[in-house]
Amino acid sequence: MSPNITLILVAATLIGTGVYLLLARSIVRALIGFLLMGNGINILFMVASGPAGDVPILGQGDPEQMSDPVPQALVLTAIVITLAMTAFVLSLAHRAWQLGRDDLLEDDEESARIHRRAEENDMSGESTDDADVIAAEFAEEDTEEERS
Asked: Looking at the predicted structure, is the pLDDT value of residue 8 above 90?
């Protein structure tokens, strides 16, 4: 039996759109992207589980004609996890709206500092993997930032 190509295309579209929205800076767009991605993955689980079959109850029916209950259980678990994540992200979005009247995420200062250090490091010199040297460099940067 071949899988349903329409369901595969729908799942691929949902996952692709979800990834695109998940990369946005808006919390609400990221939430919608997460929901779309989750639904697309659930559809892929059901497509990968094979054709529909009889109810998987022991002692009744032909075992070859029964459907596999594991993908169904995985999808139900994924739905519960998605619901919990949705509630959590909605509370984050509500709190961000209360504090700043905006749901866009700002750049993290520590992440920007690490990115800046990575751009400045041209890796042409000798290796300095010593933890003490790296810690001293961070301490120097911190003192320079505090002075300015």
From this structure: yes
* Residue 132, burial from CB neighbour count under 10 angstroms (0-12, 13-18, 19+): exposed
Contact between 80 and 57 (Cβ < 8 Å): no
- Please report which confidence band the pLDDT of residue 127 belongs to, taking 50, 70 and 90 as the band edges: very low
Q: Model's pTM, two decimal places?
A: 0.66
Tens of pLDDT, residue by residue over 33-50, are 999 999 999 999 988 887
H, E, C per residue of the chain: CCCCHHHHHHHHHHHHHHHHHHCCCEHHHHHHHHHHHHHHHHHHHHHHCCCCCECCCCCCCCHHHECCHHHHHHHHHHHHHHHHHHHHHHHHHHHHHHHHCCCECCCCHHHHHHHHHHHHCCCCCCCCCCHHHHHHHHHHHHHHHHHC
Selection from 100, 109, 96 nearest residue 27 by Cα:
96
